[in-house]
Design a protein that fits this description.
By secondary structure, chain A is an all-alpha fold. Chain A has ten helices and no strands. The chains are: A mainly alpha, B alpha+beta.
Amino acid sequence: MIKYFKVIVFILCLWPLAAISLNIYFDELGPEPIKKIMHHFGEWTLIFICLTLAMSPLKRFTPFNFWTKFRRMLGLYVFFYATVHLLIYVGLDYRFDWDPILNDVLKKKYIYIGFSAWLLLIPLAATSSQKMIKLLKHNWKKIHKLIYVIAVFGSLHYIWLSKTIFFKPLIYSLIILVLLALRIRIKKKDINYG
Amino acid sequence: MKKIKYSEITPEKIYKKRRDFVKKLGLSAGSMFIGQNLINPAFASNDNLENKITEYRYITTYNNYYEFGTKKNDPVEKSQNFKTKPWNITIDGEVKKKITLTAEEIKNIFPIEERIYKLRCVEGWSMIIPWLGFSLSKLLEKAAPTSKAKFVKFTSIYDPEQMPGQRYPILKWPYIEGLRIDEAMHPLTTLVTGLYGKELPNQNGAPLRLIVPWKYGFKSTKVIVNIKLVEKMPTSSWMRASPKEYGFYSNVNPRVDHPRWSQASERVIGSGIISERIPTTMFNGYGDEVAHLYSEMDLKKNF
């Protein structure tokens, strides 16, 4: 049963790709299409970070157990959309013109924190297989705690690139903060009962 | 890229004729887009400039106007019921003759010209816009500034009932901007009353706004109700919000980066996915006209 659900979720997660393709095809992207495509994938990366982080609290606070079964797939989608987002910035916006890109990465704090977040995603994606979980044993959990750092970097990336924190950057940051705060409680209880 | 010269401004009648001509040729937005890529992108002549004017739909739907919200489409969606009549504007402060005029009186007193200027936003995009208006200096002269008038402070309307964005502390309301007196008196500094040969749409700052084409767009303040001549440099809303990011001068300068955005290049609004960024030019291409205003200044310090 869960297998079929996984296929459905996998297809649903391709929605952002389909939606923007339709927008491109019907020329609905408005005056700054490149920026729009870039922001589209950036925002979906944040949404997938939130979804990934929401799975274990959902398992805890609902009577269902299946939530965490989707966590790996959602996490890999974070990496996928973050990579597309980065490629659009490097390839479509700056046409692989490395000078200004390098300048941005070194000088613009929202770029370097965003780029750092993407770099941190690489070890997570690379160690996402069942094999790696077995191979790394308890270290695997430690490595994958990096997603908390990535989530914070992602929300800072959004705050810093925006002229003001109102409203979307604020909303995403609050959601991420709540999702992270829920974990602190879980951990304390674990210790108490353990 | 050659800059758009003040002297190249097309009179309205010729501009309209050309528009008709372009229409008769059956040039749609699509073919203009192709044309842009085939023709040398430099503004070789006024005719090319004509082809480069940003489409009306983009100028009127893609706006930074935080009084109506922070999204680009907020202004067009939320400003349509904004009341621009009656409208009074006062010129006071260090003047010999304080004056108050209605927006209608202003449109009648001063000869309105069409002025095609490039607007460069601090966010890294640009449009070419055919404004209607006249040099602000003509209005200021009517008030006869005193010798104490060193700066000009522009205040926009404060009306949170009509302006949903003003209900939140996005910026300190009302919106304040400022210019040095010589900048304000420069013939390029335009008090705008219209756009594309028509009345100024609400989302573009109706009924009266400023255009300072060699500065980033946020200096070109909208919905002006008061122009005060002052002795000391006014603090603009953006300077107050983030002094490290927004200086008083805010001249377009590819060599001085905004802390968050590179200012070396810009996207041309409406040019599609295929076209590349273009390099940003000093003073947005108006250096011949305005560079002398800053000859003694370090523009990296006075950003």
